Structure formats: C-alpha cells, structure tokens
C-alpha cells in the first residue's frame, strides 16, 4: 500500500493542476491554450494561460511543497 501512495498523490496533483488551469472567470480551451503558449502564439487562450493561470498554479504547487517540507 505504501508504494501506491506516491504515484496516487502525483496523479492527484496533476489532475488538480489541470483543473486549476481550466477554471477562471473567462472560459478558455486549456489544451489549446497550453499548446499556443508553448508555440509562442499570441492568442487569448495563450495569454490567459501563460500570464495568469500557469504562474498561479506553479506558485500554489511550490507553496504547498514548502509547507509540506516545513512540517
């Protein structure tokens, strides 16, 4: 059972991160926005994902990891 905890938590983190990228006041296509952002396109989805939602999600993951390490 202990070997399953880490992959399950990693999968849950991935699901929650993707959910965080898709939720907001403006509805955007998350997959298309990520692909446009990676390609460097200047679409609305890429701007919303790259400038607003992705930094928020990465910061939340880093803060959660820091709090987890601090015990």
What does this structure look like?
The chain has 71 residues and is mainly alpha-helical. The protein has a domain at 28-71. It has helices at 2-22, 30-39, 44-70.
* Average of pLDDT: 93
Assembly state of the chains shown: single chain
* Annotation, overall tally of beta strands: 0
Could you give a short account of the major beta sheet?
A: none
Q: Supply the helix-strand structural class.
A: mainly alpha
Instruction: Note the gap between the termini.
Output: 23 Å
List low-confidence stretches: none
List its salient traits.
mainly alpha, single chain, 71 residues
Summarize the SSE layout with pairings.
Blueprint: H1 2-22, H2 30-39, H3 44-70
Provide a brief overview of the structure:
The chain has 71 residues and is an all-alpha fold. It is built from three helices and no strands. The chain has a domain of 44 residues.
């Amino acid at each position: 059972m202990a070997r399953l905890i880490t992959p399950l938590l990693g999968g849950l983190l991935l699901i929650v991160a993707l959910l965080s990228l898709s939720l907001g006041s403006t509805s955007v296509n998350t997959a298309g926005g990520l692909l446009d952002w990676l390609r460097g396109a200047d679409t609305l989805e890429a701007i919303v994902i790259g400038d607003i939602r992705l930094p928020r999600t990465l910061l939340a993951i880093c803060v959660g990891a820091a709090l987890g390490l601090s015990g």
